[in-house]
Amino acid sequence: MSAYGGRLSRRNACVLIAGVSALAIVAPAEAWAQGAEAPRFGAPEPFSREQLVGRARTLAARPYQPRPAAEDVAQSYDAAGKLAYGEAERIAEFVRLLPVSSLAAAPVVIHVVEGGTARTVQSFAGLFSGGTTHPAGFRIMAPDLRSDWLSYQGASYFRASGSQEQYGLSARGVAVDTALPRPEEFPSFTEFWIERKSASRFIIHALLDGPSLTGAFTFDSSKGAEGTTQDVTATLFLRKDIERLGIAPATSMFWYGEGQRPLATDWRPEVHDSDGLALWSGTGERIWRPLYNPAGARTAAFAATDPKGFGLIQRDRDFADYQDDGVWYDRRPNLWVEPQGAWGKGAVMLYEMPTDSETADNIVAFWLSDKPARKGERRDLRYRLHWTSRDLSAGTAAHATNIWIGASSLPGGRARTGAKKFVIDFEGPVLQGLDRNSGVQPVVDLPTDALFEISAYPVLGTAARWRVVVDTKVEQGARKEFRLFLRRGDNALSETVIQPLEP
């Protein structure tokens, strides 16, 4: 979901994604009104996170005031691209601004912080290629200035590149009332404070404002060989009761994969930014829920007290499975959320929507506390975001690598009515050297009368891969999914796969 008419355009978001700011002493409207002849920066003013938190608290006590759209909005993808790319000046040495556009029409206020002092950017002359406009966000450039690795733009969306220098899925500050039978709310980062620590480390502070809440966010962001890491500190102040307050939300795209071949109208074998939701619960259980493009919108919740981690993962990293040499789906980063401190009781929620193209995000995942979100409440949160090609969800247990779905039948036989075959591959060092006589068993929570057959065996010619084949009825009333893992004696060998019966 996005703030732009329901779902965010993937292609446009690749160009138009950003958002930064610093504590403003100059009001936003005044900052936007400065002409090209004004000094680049306003007068220096003290800045601290404590001041930002205080400002969010004060703002929450006032009625919400929507930000006006700019008058010089780029009306087309090409027009916005010309302003965003090409030769232009930078601020904070490596920061390039992104323009207001039809996707992100409300300007943001941007400040540069150095040594506890903030200066507002009040003149944008020379900061855009081929013209002057107002910023809707920003991106942080690599030291060679040929690419960028972090970007903010539109509502509270942001994203970072992974270890293969590729953008993919997005994150946002909060999700408000996602997947409810009414319009979702999209709070926005309205101001940013950018503090450069080195060429590969920036601290970004952001003020969040929306009808139901305000917030003060700090993102300590570093780029390294393994990708981008962000330590997030967030303080939220609630203006209203919120039915569903999503924490650390991630937004991705899944059009089709190996398990939904009938949807493959495109020539490429698979098209998706992420292929599964992973959860490491507080009890130590590791869960894998493959993503699907459903016939209708649906939600799933996975209870977890004090989760150790969760995220949207792109496990399939074989170019041959995508054959895309343009946008490189095999290089898309994972986004792993690592909570800091005890988050208490709650659930990781997954929202899947139907899509018929790769240009619309249709997957959302976030943490939802069991504690009701009430008006006047303050919530403080800390977590770490890992944007990386490494699968931090896998651990030492074997993990699911492939899931195929087809008709339930014996080879050459007639398909059974109302039944399906699920073929799930598990891989990991823990399976090394095990054979059919090692006592490995598949464990599934399906009732006996729903199973035609189930088997598990090592895949011939591989060192540490096992295949589980489940033939089951899919017309089972209220049952929507089943759970499956590998066990040897009393020990679980694999993560738990939660597989929908109707992908």
What is the strand and helix layout of this fold?
Blueprint: H1 10-15, H2 28-33, E1 45-46, H3 49-60, H4 77-84, E2 95-99, E3 109-114, E4 117-120, E5 135-141, E6 148-153, E7 157-160, E8 170-172, E9 174-176, E10 188-198, E11 201-209, E12 213-224, E13 227-238, E14 245-252, E15 254-256, E16 271-272, E17 276-280, E18 286-290, E19 298-303, E20 309-313, E21 334-339, E22 346-352, E23 363-369, E24 378-388, E25 399-407, E26 419-427, E27 440-444, E28 451-458, E29 465-473, E30 481-488, E31 491-492, E32 496-500
Write up what this structure looks like:
The strands form four sheets. This protein has a 16-stranded mixed beta sheet that branches. Strands 2, 5, 6, 7, 8, 9, 14, 19, 22 and 23 form a ten-stranded antiparallel beta sheet that branches. The N terminus is likely disordered. The protein is built from four helices and 32 strands. The chain has 503 residues and is mainly β. Helix content is 6%, strand content 41%.
Keywords:
41% strand; disordered N terminus; 503 residues; mainly beta; 4 helices; 6% helix; 32 strands; 16-stranded mixed β-sheet; ten-stranded antiparallel β-sheet
Strand runs, count? 32
Largest sheet: 16 strands, mixed
Strand content: 35-45%
Shape: elongated
Rg calc: 24 Å
Mean pLDDT: 90
Structural class: mainly beta
Helix content: under 10%
Number of helices: 4
Q: Point out poorly predicted stretches.
A: 1-36
First-last Cα distance: 20 Å
